[in-house]
Each structure stands twice: as structure tokens, then as C-alpha cells.
Hints:
This is Transcriptional regulator, AraC family. The protein is α+β, with helices and mostly antiparallel strands. About 40% of the residues lie in helices and about 20% in strands.
Amino acid sequence: xxxxxxxxxxxxxxxxxxxxxxxxxxxxxxxxxxxxxxxxxxxxxxxxxxxxxxxxxxxxxxxxxxxxxxxxxxxxxxxxxxxxxxxxxxxxxxxxxxxxxxxxxxxxxxxxxxxxxxxxxxxxxxxxxxxxxxxxxxxxxxxxxxxxxxxxxxxxxxxxxxxxxxxxxxxxxxxxxxxxxxxxxxxxxxxxxxxxxxxxxxxxxxxxxxxxxxxxxxxxxxxxxxxxxxxxxxxxxxxxxxxxxxxxxxxxxxxxxx
Length: 258
């Protein structure tokens, strides 16, 4: 049995009503195993992931998702990888998939069961090795060059990490530049070359954490807003809807039975 209220190396997302989410930031590569319902990925539903299948998504600043219950609910297991996890993978001559999607076979199922069951019993520093086992199995089974799925936009990743360290801190561009030993103008120029900005990364970090909290808990919306660095719940609601296409309360209702 899993212990409640402790950090775990995986998450469970569920809903009883359809969820349509725009511009979802994928901060780190993530394996999504759909156990009930269907997940659509892309603005035009480019990828369909039905019950009993998985999708491995690379880190991306924005992706469109739809979660559709079948029968009673949508239910999925999510495992987020660190970029460093991919360094264990050998480089292959095979293709690098933009997205890897396939059925959950017996080998992957047993690997996932072991991963979940050991979560309470192995020290946190060993979680990386168990995540790497999953990646090695996927690369072995599908002969794809998964190593290159982890996008290393080095500066964006460093800024993301600094902002994530304290969501309530009002960290300025100048302070970020100082921490990175850059001038503020150089920081802005290099981020622009990576297709982003300090403010965009701030929004992705804060709203991404808020989205995860709404999907995995019933913490009051006002508390989530405060924990994610928003002094005003109404401001948080506006930013959330602007980003994802629905309010935090509307998303919360999809996880509740009528």
C-alpha cells in the first residue's frame, strides 16, 4: 500500500468528465500510461492513446491535450523523467521519434508495476536508476534513438530550475542574469534565440505546477494560487484560463462526480 502525503516518483491523473487543455507545458519528458479512457494529443488530435497504451512525450513548451473518459472515468499513470535520465541510453542509428506511442506489453507492464510498488521502499536517490530501467526497456523494444528525445535547451532549463526553486520569490531578470553570470541583455537575447523569454518561463513554471496540483489533489484553488506565487486568486484564474482555455474551478469540476 502506498503511503499518503509523501513524494512519489509518479503521479495519477483521473477525471469523470472530458478535459480539453491548451498550451500545456511539458517541463520534462513524461511517460503517460492510459489505463482507462482515451488521451488525444495535438491541436488536431494527431495522436490517440487508448486504454492499455502509452505515450512518451519529450519536453516541450506547449502541447494540446484532451482526456476522454470511457465508461466511468479517464485514468492514467504519469512518470516524469529528468533530462539526465536519458544520458544512460546508447546512441542508436534508428529514428528519434517526436512522440513514442504504443500498447503496454507484458514486459513494460511488469516494469511499471515494480516501479510503483518499490516507490515506498527504495531511497529517493535510487529513483533515477528505476526510471532509467524504463527508458532502456523502451529503447530496446522499439529500437528508437530515445536519447535525443530530451531537448537540452541549456539556458531555458537553467532559468526554469532557478524559478522552480521558489515559486513565491519575485525573481527579476537581473537577478537571474546575475545567478547565471550573464548580463541581462545577454540573458534576454539567448532566451529569445531559444524561442522563449523570462516571463514566458515564469508563467510556464507557475501555471504548470498549478495544473499538476489541480489534477492530483483537491487543495483549495486559493491555496494553490498562493503556493504558485499569485497574491490574487482572480489574477491566477485569469492567467490560468488564458493559458489552458478553462478556469481552475472548471478543471476541478471534471474530477468530481455530479
